[in-house]
Design goal:
3-stranded antiparallel sheet; transmembrane helix; Ig_sub; 141 residues; Myelin protein zero like 2; disulfide bond; mainly beta; Ig-like_fold; 13 strands; 6-stranded mixed sheet; Immunoglobulin-like
């Protein structure tokens, strides 16, 4: 006889949840100072994709000790940062229905060395892993 094991978990509302959001990234990247780099982040969700409710957040954790900084937010439309070190440097390069949450950083600087965190929520599927990309900005290729 075949035995199938399925694990279930209940969230705070008691809703049965089979699986959460799964995020996929390249893990680590290298970019030459002054060039553009695409931070690839794709996702899978156990719920149907609804472009009106999907939210995407990118944050940056510097290599040196420092506070996390918001890089980009998407909710109905792209919201690039209006202040901070990424102002006028971020372009949306994703496709919600294609399950792509990627962004482009224009003209990377050495201060952009660090970890970029991609988080996707697709209600009611709001739990799951985050994606991390460690970016290393180098002098030459």
């Amino acid at each position: 006889a075949w035995l199938f094991h399925i694990s279930y978990s209940f969230n705070t509302h008691g809703v049965l949840q089979v699986s959460g959001i799964r995020i996929y990234t390249s893990g680590s990247m290298e970019a030459v100072n002054g060039t553009d780099v695409r931070l690839k982040c794709t996702f899978q969700s156990s719920a149907p994709i609804n472009p009106n409710t999907v939210t995407i957040s990118w944050t940056f954790r510097p290599l040196t000790q420092g506070r996390e900084e918001s890089v980009f937010h998407y909710q109905h439309q792209p919201y690039p940062p209006l202040e901070g070190i990424f102002r006028k440097r971020i372009s949306w390069d994703g496709d919600i229905m294609g399950r792509d949450a990627s962004i482009i950083i224009r003209e990377v600087k050495f201060t952009y060395n660090g970890t970029y965190i991609c988080q996707v929520k697709n209600p009611p599927d709001v739990h799951g892993t985050v994606g991390e990309i460690k970016l290393r900005v180098v002098t030459t290729g």
